[in-house]
Amino acid sequence: MKFKGLLFAAAALAFATCAPAFVPAAAAKAHHSFGVEYDANKPITLTGVVTQIEWTNPHCFIYIDVKDKDGKITNWKMEGFPPSVLSRNGWHRDQTVKVGDTITMTGWQSRVGGPWGHSREVTLVDGRKLYFGPPPGTGDGGSVPSTTVTPSGQYPPDQPAQKQ
Predict the structure, then answer these.
(1) Strand residue runs (E) in the chain
(2) CA dist 144 → 25, 137, 140, 164 (Å)
(3) Calpha distance 9→93 (Å, rounded)
(4) In terms of C-beta density within 10 A (0-12 exposed, 13-18 middle, 19 or more buried), how is residue 91 classed?
(5) Residue 28, by phi and psi: left (phi above 0), alpha (psi -120 to 50) or beta?
(6) Do 62 and 81 form a contact (C-beta atoms < 8 A)?
(7) Is 7 helix (H, G, I), strand (E, B) or coil?
(8) Alpha-carbon gap, residue 52 to 65, rounded angstroms
(9) Residues 128, 126: Cα–Cα separation, whole Å
(10) Is the model's pLDDT at 113 over the cut of 90?
(11) For the residues of 70-96, what is the DSSP string, one character each?
(12) Are 76 and 69 within 8 A, CB to CB?
């Protein structure tokens, strides 16, 4: 009987030692840089009806039905900030945007194409514009501030407007 207890303790110790090695891999796979998944050279502007909202970490998603010129409806999945950042930017879960609302989203399409993208900004029916995601990254690890204009022509709130 003592042997079984010792065997159980050894197995538990082995699990406790090895399990943390798998956690960083899962977290790294879940989070990514902009450039890995999205193409800054493929700006998109979509207007459609919200079908689903995922208020999740590490990113929120809004799904919208977009009707093309022939009347065909395509459901787009648009990625944005995590819930904590959206809250700090004035978003309120189940209030700011709801299923059934018509919105316009600007952003960039995924590198693989299809109805999937990263959204920078959401325009509500009343004309209000809210940031939903960050601008595209520069790939420099954040050492140089972004001066990228959003697809609608606005600069990020933390950047000065450039003189034209």
Answers:
(1) 38-54, 61-67, 73-79, 102-110, 116-123, 129-131
(2) 28, 10, 7, 21
(3) 45
(4) buried
(5) alpha
(6) no
(7) helix
(8) 10
(9) 6
(10) no
(11) TS-EEEEEEE---HHHHHHTT--TTTS
(12) no
34-131: CATH topology: OB fold (Dihydrolipoamide Acetyltransferase, E2P) (2.40.50)
In the DSSP assignment, the letter for residue 60 is -
CB 105 within 8 A of CB 152: no
pLDDT of residue 136: 75
Enumerate the β-bridge partners of residue 117: 78, 109
Q: Which tokens is 146 given?
A: 């972004």
pLDDT at 24 over 50: no
Structural contact between residues 42 and 112, judged by C-beta atoms closer than 8 angstroms = no
Mean pLDDT, all residues of the chain: 77
Would you say residue 157 has pLDDT above 50?
no
Map out the domains of the chain as residue ranges: 1-30, 34-131
